[in-house]
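For concreteness, we quote verbatim a single protein encoded this way:
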Amino acid sequence: MRTLIVSDLHLGSLTRTDVLRRRELREPLLGELEDVDRVVLLGDVLELRHGPVRDALACSREFFEELGAAMAGGEIVITAGNHDHALVEPWLIARGQELEPPPLGPEQLLEPSVASPALERIAEWCAPAKVTVAYPGVWVRDDVYATHGHYLDCHLTIPTLERLTMGAMERILGRPPSSLRSAADYESICAPMFAWRDAVARDERTGAALNGIATVTAWRALRGETPAGAASQDGTGARTAYRERIHGHARRLRTRALVGVFPLAVAALNRAGLGPLRSDISGQELRRAGLEAMGEVADRLGVGQSYVVFGHTHRTGPLAGDAEREWRPPGGARLLNAGSWVYVSVFVSEAPAENPYWPGGCVVVDDDGPPQVRRLLQGFTRAQIAPPRRRRPGGSSSRPEPAPG
């Protein structure tokens, strides 16, 4: 049996950075399914932090119908991540309402109708393919375990919003990361924070602080980057050019202030007990910290001697040039990351072959042999995968987008 694993589709993104909403970018993935018996959609399949479930479903129906047609006679396994935890939340609530439920292990297999109405609807669209729901992960093979990877935020040393909310919940519940030993332990920390965010987005579209746009803006500033379109000169006259110069000067001042205060803020968060956190957000540190945290999760879930496929960080790998030791944590796991299918300009360079955040990653698992990382959108240019620019009043344009994870 051949299994293809893809993660972080974020279908229905308000910022239109979900590349699979476009037919020409779906074709390489659908074409890859010719010899595939099972597809695993490894969490963050829908973007449910930008607005109501109904909006994400409406944007994703065409994809699911085409996927189901391509997988006729095969199986589609869907699991949830942090951005679409609401897909399994109804089942998680119901499982303990009448009787004490069995322990929440690394794999629970469910019928879509048992998990949530949204997954039941998705299963209908995917017919004639069979749809199974797995949470928090699925055993693809006796020695290959796949999970979204959102539990790693409990161990991450990068001060993301997700990590800070997990740290706050750990403090409130008196559950330090060292005490987490099972999927149930991780859910006790993560689920309350996910439920709060899901509730905010249930009926209305969310703002920049929750949908990730503010995070990307801050990361651009810390890296000294200018947002796309910020210095646009569109021929509208000297007054527009003057405004751009004034705004540009103000941005530079804000950037200097943010860069200067960031290490102090991280130190304060550590003193408050929300760490350990580091102020290094370089590409190397993002990779190292994510892999270290995922290795910790694999070890604590008891799957650490297997191949462990995850997503969440959007960083495909291992790739040529990656240090093998980083992908083989002390617990014994052999880590692979399926990458993502979203375009985030702050992480995407002009050269797809050299960029680990380039969308279009997947992992192929056969009956034997090591799982293989593949990249299906390497033949496209940055301009071809970028979402259309949105015009602002005054003539400038922008591409707002959410942060990875």
Observations:
- The chain has two domains: 3-207+280-392, 216-271.
- Residues 30 and 70 are 7 Å apart (CA to CA).
